[in-house]
């Protein structure tokens, strides 16, 4: 008779653990995704220049456009939500994604310019810029961080 009581307690404990796990998983998932993801639209301007439009509805950020002057983009317009890792970009290269808690942070090399998108600010070529919905930001190749001379320290000389 004692083994029946043990089995009953084991089944009840397993059931409670399963229900607790389900509730905690659902709560965690809600906290991670409730603010929504960054939405980027990769397109070409009327002059064919690469244009990145950034939206984040929860934070009230909409239609912030970054245009790179003196470059050409001939691809199709693509809208991408950054709600999971490993997303391919139509132009530019991903440097870092953190989509653990949305909207997260995204850093990309955007034809020679470093663009870092954070909830509190936009960082362009290592300079912070406050979010202003509807703003159009033009970047030129002379401003590209990849064009800046690298600081090279000489190797120590051996004797």
Q: How far from one another are the termini? A: 86 Å
User: Overall 3D geometry?
Assistant: elongated
- On the 0 to 100 scale, the average pLDDT is 87
The number of helical elements comes to 1
Strand share of the residues? Answer: 25-35%
| N-to-C series of helices and strands | HEEEEEEEEEE
Total tally of structural domains? 2
The parts where pLDDT drops under 50 for at least 5 residues are 149-153
Largest sheet entry: 5 strands, mixed
User: What structural class do helix, strand and pairing data support?
Assistant: alpha+beta
What spatial order of strands do you see in the largest sheet?
Answer: 4-1-2-3-10
Count of β-strands: 10
What Rg, in angstroms, do the CA atoms define? Answer: 24 Å
Walk me through the topology.
Blueprint: H1 2-33, E1 38-44, E2 50-56, E3 61-68, E4 78-82, E5 93-98, E6 105-110, E7 113-117, E8 122-124, E9 127-129, E10 136-139
Parallel strand pairs: 3-10
Antiparallel strand pairs: 1-2, 1-4, 2-3, 5-6, 6-7, 7-8, 8-9
